[in-house]
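Batch manifest, entry 17 of 40.
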Amino acid sequence: MKKWWIFGIIGIVVVLVIIGIFVSMYVRRECETATDCLTKTCFIAECSNNKCVYSPIADCCGNDRCEVGETYKDCVIDCPNCDDKNNCTIDEYDYHEQKCVNKPILDVICCGNGICEIGEDYENCTRDCPNCDNNNNCTSDSYDYHEQKCINELIIPCCGSGICDEGAETYLNCSIDCPNCDDDNKLTTDSFNYATQECENPVTHYFIDDFESGTENWVFYDAEGKPTTAWHTIMDSSNTILRGTGHNWAKLENKRWTDYILKVRFKMIKGSMQFNYRLNTGDIFTRYTVQIREYPTRISLVKSTDSNTHFDVGGGEKRIQLDKNRWHTLEIRGYDNILNVYIDDKLLIKHRDTEYPILSGGVAFECMGESEFLVGWGEAEFLIDDVEVRLIGEGDVVYP
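Output type: structure tokens
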């Protein structure tokens, strides 16, 4: 009995071993031939030792790699579409880098290559060229193809540039750039400084009168100090002027200065006239007087230290040529104790007063009567206009 039991166990073991061998042989055997293997794209299947071996096929569409020879057109599954819809680029696929490359075309003019080339501008190729118009009429707008940038050069002169251009622009012809420098003050000289681009209104005068607004600045009296109408305004064409006759005075009321220039236009109709400078009246009477006399016409500078004392200074009387019935200009310049007298811009008298000089005072015009200088010729008649009392500096006088 025991022997049969042992043989039975041995038999079971043998059977199990045989079954295991057969099972093992069946599992390891994947194929008998290549036809038993799966079909894979871009792979060649072989049956080796009853196992399927798959070898990749080079340059095969579908292997997830865009290889030399493949393009988007013939292998969409591996290769991208490199067309960037730009006619100004050469579209290629870099097989080494495995990416698209879009090279701009530089050897020909091509709108869309990102470069504004000669022959292209904003109007015919907005893709490449910027709009260089800065909406400023005072710039010349162009494109620098070498620098690849807009150039907006300022046009000089140009009304509207914000700069008042010297020699070309004024308030009258370009008010948008140039200010109105007129400060409505007759005593200032109004000008525009092109360097600082600002108005300048320095005071140049103490007094100005052209008699167009009347004679409110003046008092008129005769030789005895009584009011007179011998001085009055008349019309000369469209111009208002002051006319004086006989021995009568026209004096600036309550005006006196130290150093100044008296400038006045005058017309000698007949007789003699005295232009009083640094005049002081009242308890103390002092003055300098420029006398202009007719027949023969002459000029002199006289000093008065009281109402009855008069003596020539500055070299005495000088013969001059004055056309009657024509306007002339007289200037009396006084700076400290230096006096200059000009007729029609010509220096006729220069004097340094070293003996008690009269250093300040006002202005008056004095026509002379017949008895003083012109016996037989009647009373004097003179016309006056454009009276100016200007500031003076040391450089405005000529020293004797």
